[in-house]
Amino acid sequence: MLAVINYSNARDNLAEVFRKAAVKSETVVVTCENEQNVVIISLEKYNFLEKAAANAECLRMLDKSVKELESGGFVVRSMAELEACES
Which domain holds residue 22? Predict the structure, then answer.
């Protein structure tokens, strides 16, 4: 669920705003006069979003690797050749 409140209401009812976000898992949008709005969410939801963003980045890298593989943009080396490069 999404709740939208203005800054003054959020300030005057901060405990309730936090309860909505933390306990009820609501997303609370706090609107400001200068249109620099903020979103208050639970730590659990924040961690989920961070993990999803990291997963999306990994998928982008995998997609790029698959495209390089399909286009022949790779080099095959044996383990012996790799070990020789370290010397």
Answer: 1-41
